[in-house]
């Protein structure tokens, strides 16, 4: 799937996750891309009370696979 820039970010998924979770706020200085990805997955799956192995979990994890956490980490640490 070809991705297009969205509001200055790599794609819609990156923009949306950063916006909704506030990952570029000062609270995430020092976080690397793996830490941000883990935080996003845990937060979304727990808040949504998503069951392991469910269709919803698959859809969420697929969406998160499109997020450029490296880009978010870079912006959070600037």
Question: What do you see in this structure?
Answer:
The radius of gyration is 12 Å and the shape is globular. The longest helix is centred in the middle third of the chain and has 15 residues. The protein is an all-alpha fold and 78 residues long. The protein has four helices and no strands. The model has no long low-confidence stretch (mean pLDDT 93). The chain has one domain.
Q: What topology does this entry show?
A:
Blueprint: H1 12-21, H2 33-47, H3 55-64, H4 69-76
Instruction: List the total number of helices.
Output: 4
Q: Could you state the oligomeric state of the chains shown?
A: single chain
Strand content: under 5%
* Ends distance: 30 Å
Helix content: 55-70%
Kindly provide the radius of gyration, computed on alpha-carbon positions and rounded to a whole number of angstroms.
12 Å
Count of discrete domains: 1
- Which runs of at least 5 residues are low in confidence (pLDDT < 50)? none
Structural class by sheet pairing and helices? mainly alpha
- Strand elements, count: 0
Query: Taking all residues together, what is the mean pLDDT?
Result: 93
Largest sheet: none
Please trace the helix and strand order, writing H or E for each element: HHHH
Backbone shape: globular
């Amino acid at each position: 799937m070809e991705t297009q820039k969205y509001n200055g970010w790599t794609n819609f998924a990156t923009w949306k996750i950063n916006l909704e979770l506030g990952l570029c706020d000062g609270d995430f200085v020092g976080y690397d891309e793996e830490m941000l990805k883990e935080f996003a997955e845990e937060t979304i799956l727990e808040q949504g009370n998503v069951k392991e192995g469910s269709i919803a979990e698959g859809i969420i994890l697929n969406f998160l696979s499109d997020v450029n956490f490296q880009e978010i980490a870079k912006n959070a640490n600037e």
